[in-house]
């Protein structure tokens, strides 16, 4: 029997569903707003029970709850919890077999599954969109919802499409969940989903059990200090680093000294990552040395220590990462081995993502030249190579063009569809619904075969039988569901309408250039704000809470290095960027790069920015294309500040 609040109090329902006696701060208020029919934004610190807000509410709603989650690991952890409580939940994700995906879709269709978890990218799947449009949905939940804000610390352009998906699917309720949103980001998120300010629920950020310690450290001292900290603090520990190579190096050094440790980063395969995470969860492995790829899917309550071996990316990242410790409310340590040596690396990541003005011109030219009858088709990877813009900033520019009304997304499809028969295609005709009989017979004749795999000729089927691409795929998907054939697709192609009346090349170029410049300034300022925060001479816990809009944290926590009388002063070793010796070889590297580019790709403008990105090892699509990594100068100055390299390169180019 489904619970109804008219019959029993919420606390009783909480206990019978989840086994908890009481709600945590903010949970009940958020759930009550949702059940009263109001969309809500919940801003709770890491580990304080955000997920329960949607999990509880979903059991009280008549139809499906659709959850957007950024990580497969995060989905699987939440699914394990829900299933352990007898709540019917499932995910559709890339780790599943065809049979598993089909079982989930059947469960959603017949109403036995109450909660479905997907990534935002799933909306690009033609088949999923056709399927989900037929399903009544009560609530859309967006986890890590700060990803929708361009002012957030982890902006993901695909998230900007979520409000239009909500309208398209007529979903009445939205719940946004985040642990790290400043007031500005909260306003931005709420406005995009028309959430009223009174329906934003924010709980306190202050964690009385977390000891924050900032220790000035030079690069050569880091490993020794880390070992001392690990020896002083027993229990599960996470050590955060910036780069994959550092994760491996530090883990190897600790392992050689007898520590129970594993490295974790995005360069490892899914199975290896899952095994490392499982070993950490069951305490087989005590220490994980990780890039920020680790942690979002972790619900381990007894992490006693989080060490930042390198600088975090931002205050938001720092808050999220230290928030993974001490979720059981027991005392836990959060240590930063504070050094400015890694500052250039963080800033260089930002500079590497900013498109040059001629790259933006190239994008707009591609759109103009490739548009046929106001329709433009593109594949992201190919467009990235054509324009020399990395895929994430390229997605961001396309979303900006949408917001400027220059282009409108129409639909997306897979350019390459192929099939392989698994059963008797003639006998299967008897099982096809009557209204699809003619289509099925036409499709059988309209498939071109190469050995066992066949490809539907969509143009021929449309011209001869009037069958649209959607008609053909609907019939083939039905056959695939019945295990008569295997259907594969790749080459995701986005189709946009180009709005000629708003597509003025120079105006758009200026607007996009201004946008990417402002974004670069904002991201560099985010890093500078973090450095200023670490050097404050007043309570760190108090100021961290204030940064996220919580004015109620104590002014003196008594358990941070500032309250103990040790405000951080960065000890800067000899500034590598002030040395001139490195510039002696610069001319040779520039000459080598310019000659290579001219021979491999003569149309590419060789600018000071492109050369500086090459020298600091900031990967660009063109570098992969011309195999620039093989040159001796690639990444030779990756430790140095990009701006200092750019200045020196510009000087040399001006002198020649």
UniProtKB/TrEMBL annotation:
Record-annotated Helicase ATP-binding domain positions: 31-199
Keyword annotations: ATP-binding, DNA-binding, Helicase, Hydrolase, Isomerase, Metal-binding, Nucleotide-binding
InterPro entries, A to Z: DEAD/DEAH_box_helicase_dom (IPR011545), DNA/RNA_helicase_DEAH_CS (IPR002464), DNA_helicase_ATP-dep_RecQ (IPR004589), Helicase_ATP-bd (IPR014001), Helicase_C-like (IPR001650), P-loop_NTPase (IPR027417), RecQ_Zn-bd (IPR032284), WH-like_DNA-bd_sf (IPR036388)
EC number: 5.6.2.4
SMART domains xrefs: DEXDc (SM00487), HELICc (SM00490)
GO cellular component: bacterial nucleoid; cytoplasm; replisome
Record keyword DNA-binding present: yes
Reactions the enzyme catalyzes: Couples ATP hydrolysis with the unwinding of duplex DNA by translocating in the 3'-5' direction
Top-rank taxon, per record: Bacteria
Family annotation (Pfam families): DEAD, Helicase_C, RecQ_Zn_bind
Record carries keyword Translocase: no
UniProt cross-references to CDD domains, sorted A to Z: DEXHc_RecQ4-like
Residue ranges annotated for the Helicase C-terminal domain, each copy included: 225-387
Record GO terms (molecular function): 3'-5' DNA helicase activity; ATP binding; DNA binding; four-way junction helicase activity; hydrolase activity; metal ion binding
GO biological process, one term: DNA repair
Top EC class, one word: isomerase
Record-linked NCBIfam families: recQ_fam
Record family assignment: Belongs to the helicase family. RecQ subfamily.
Protein name as catalogued: ATP-dependent DNA helicase RecQ
Organism: Marinomonas primoryensis
């Amino acid at each position: 029997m489904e619970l109804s609040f008219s019959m029993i109090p919420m606390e009783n329902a909480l206990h019978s569903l989840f086994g908890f006696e009481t709600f945590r701060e903010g949970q009940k208020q958020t759930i009550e707003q949702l059940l009263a029919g109001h969309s809500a934004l919940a801003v709770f610190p890491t580990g304080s029970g955000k997920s329960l807000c949607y999990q509880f509410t979903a059991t009280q709603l008549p139809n499906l709850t659709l959850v957007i989650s950024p990580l497969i690991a995060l989905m699987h952890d939440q699914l394990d919890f829900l299933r352990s409580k007898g709540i019917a939940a499932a995910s559709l994700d890339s780790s599943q077999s065809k049979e598993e995906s089909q079982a989930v879709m059947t469960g959603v269709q017949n109403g036995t599954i109450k909660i479905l978890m997907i990534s935002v990218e799933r909306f690009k799947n033609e088949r999923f969109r056709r399927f989900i449009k037929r399903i009544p949905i009560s609530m859309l939940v967006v986890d890590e919802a700060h990803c929708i804000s361009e002012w957030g610390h982890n902006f993901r352009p695909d998230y900007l499409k979520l409000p239009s998906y909500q309208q398209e699917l007529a979903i009445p309720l939205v719940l946004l969940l985040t642990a790290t949103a400043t007031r500005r980001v909260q306003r931005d998120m709420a406005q995009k989903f028309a959430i009223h300010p009174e329906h934003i629920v924010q709980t306190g950020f202050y964690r009385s059990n977390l000891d924050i310690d900032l220790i000035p450290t030079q690069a050569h001292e880091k490993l020794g200090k880390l070992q001392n900290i690990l020896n002083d603090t027993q229990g599960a520990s996470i050590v955060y680093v910036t780069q994959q190579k550092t994760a491996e190096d530090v883990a190897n050094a600790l392992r050689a000294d007898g520590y129970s440790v594993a490295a974790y980063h995005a360069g490892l395969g899914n199975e290896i990552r899952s095994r490392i995470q499982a070993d950490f969860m069951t305490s087989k492995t005590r220490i994980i040395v990780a890039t920020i790829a680790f942690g979002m899917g972790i619900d381990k309550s007894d992490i006693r220590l989080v060490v930042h071996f390198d600088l975090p990316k931002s205050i938001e990242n720092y808050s999220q990462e230290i928030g993974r410790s001490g979720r059981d409310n027991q005392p836990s340590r959060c240590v930063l081995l504070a050094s400015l040596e890694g500052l250039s690396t963080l800033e260089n990541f930002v500079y590497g993502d900013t498109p040059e003005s001629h790259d933006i011109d190239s994008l707009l030219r591609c759109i103009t030249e490739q548009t046929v009858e106001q329709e433009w088709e593109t594949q992201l990877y190919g467009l990235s190579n054509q324009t020399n813009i990395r895929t994430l900033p390229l997605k961001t520019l396309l979303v900006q063009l949408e917001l400027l009304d220059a282009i409108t997304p129409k639909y997306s499809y897979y350019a390459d569809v192929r099939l392989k028969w698994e059963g008797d295609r003639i006998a299967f005709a008897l099982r096809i619904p009557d209204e699809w009989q003619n289509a099925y017979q036409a499709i059988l004749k309209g498939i071109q075969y190469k050995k066992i795999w066949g490809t539907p000729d969509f143009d021929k089927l449309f011209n001869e039988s009037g069958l649209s691409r959607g008609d053909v795929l609907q019939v083939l998907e039905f056959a695939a569901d019945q295990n008569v054939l295997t259907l594969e697709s790749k080459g995701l192609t986005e189709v946009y309408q180009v709005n000629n009346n708003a597509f003025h090349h120079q105006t758009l170029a200026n607007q996009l250039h201004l946008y990417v410049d402002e974004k670069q300034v904002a991201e560099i300022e985010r890093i500078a704000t973090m450095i200023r925060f670490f050097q404050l001479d007043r309570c760190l816990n108090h100021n961290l809470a204030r940064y996220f809009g919580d004015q109620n944290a104590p002014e003196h926590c008594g358990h941070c290095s500032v309250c103990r009388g040790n405000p951080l002063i960065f000890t800067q070793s000899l500034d590598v960027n002030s040395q001139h010796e490195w510039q002696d070889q610069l001319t040779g590297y520039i000459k080598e790069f310019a000659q290579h580019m001219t021979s491999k790709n003569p149309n590419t403008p060789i600018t000071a920015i492109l050369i500086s990105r090459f020298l600091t090892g900031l990967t660009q699509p063109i570098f992969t294309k011309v195999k620039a990594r093989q040159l001796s100068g690639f990444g030779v100055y990756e430790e140095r500040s990009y701006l200092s390299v750019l200045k020196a390169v510009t000087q040399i180019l001006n002198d020649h």
